[in-house]
Amino acid sequence: QVQLTESGGGLVQAGDSLRLSCAASSRSFSGYAMGWFRQAPGKEREFVATISWNGDTTFYAESVKGRFTISRDNVRNRLYLQMNTPKPEDTAVYYCAARAPKYSSGTSDYTHYDYWGQGTQVTVSS
Questions:
Q1: How confident is the model over 59-78, as a mean pLDDT?
Q2: How far is the C-alpha of 30 from the C-alpha of 7, rounded, in Å?
């Protein structure tokens, strides 16, 4: 089992940069494929990016490809989302999620993830 805590959200101007962090409680963090999702008011939870257990494989939603970068530090038990040139439509609560250790890679389907953080609000102003 793993507990996840996001941080780094806030108010940012469109075109600026922001980095989200997700701290994992488990020493076996390196065994989990991880993902970032987001949810805007009145909308469904939406896939943002995913990364395999060892960081070798990443996958992005088309809407963020080329602007956001997912990465992980398995020594510090941290997951990151670097958000470059954010847009107002990126405004949402951002969640990190972990997939059960038997899976080496993540997916874009939020129902495939077993552990979730509480979320961090990101607001992008124009």
A1: 97
A2: 20
